[in-house]
Amino acid sequence: MSAPIQAAPRPAASIVTRLGLGFGFLLAVLAAAAVLAVWGFQRSREDLRRAEQSFVQLETMRTVEAAFDRYLLREITRRLGGGGDPAESAEAAALRGALLIYRRQIGAEIATATSDAERDEERSEMIRAAALSDLFETIEAQAMLDRSRGPVFGAADSAQVFLAAIVAQRDAAFRAVIFEVLADERGEARAAFAGLEATRARLILVALGLSALLVVSLGLYAWLLHRGLMRPIRALAGAVQSFGEGRMAERAPGGMPGEFSILADGFNG
Predict the structure, then answer these.
(1) Which end of the chain is flanked by fewer CB atoms within 10 Å, N or C?
(2) Per residue in 61-84, pLDDT tens?
(3) Are 228 and 15 in contact, with CB atoms under 8 Å apart?
(4) H helices of 226-258, where?
(5) For 227, which DSSP code?
(6) What backbone torsions phi and psi does residue 8 show, to the nearest 5 degrees?
(7) Rounded to whole angstroms, how far apart are CA atoms 128 and 132?
(8) What pLDDT is attached to residue 10?
(9) 256 — phi, psi (to 5°)?
């Protein structure tokens, strides 16, 4: 009977392949850390952008509210002083300009929105901005007609008509919209800072995990480098030195990794 055919010994993995895989794993960990840093930077920048926009809107609303108060005070003062000049006051022009700036800011936020939800929120703000402008223009149009009644009119009566008939509920509606906008912008600013804090906490946790993984990977790579490269080199160098010193029976150790087994077999042969 013929002897059974024995399977050829499976060649050991190349030491270069092993070291290359280990180095590739280290690069993957470093790449993950880089991706994490880029993601954290972009996320933090987005949260800061939203917070900054909210603070700008808050400041603009404060400006609009103050301009509205100055406008009403100016209209009352004009009536108490007597006179029927229908021309627009500087305070009315300033209020109109502040409202225009507010609408432009919202338009810029819509253009830079990064999600549909954020875009919808900004469109809701644009509707409120349009409501504020409509309320002001309605008050100013009727105030202009009231101022056009004549060069001189009863101061007390005119001021009372302006407050009771022209401003009336529109003043409350104007301030209600401003209050709503201020509350929303404060909420958005708080949400932005909460998101920034959450991003920071996630970055710290993931960074700690990646750091631990990197330390372990470096340790394993150092062990692999020592076991797969330095130790076999020392063993072969020791065998060669012993052979050179006349100890002809010296043999290189067997079971060496990768290409070192070929060198050991050649030396022993």
Answers:
(1) N
(2) 999 999 999 998 888 887 777 666
(3) yes
(4) 231-244
(5) I
(6) -65, 140
(7) 6
(8) 46
(9) -80, 155
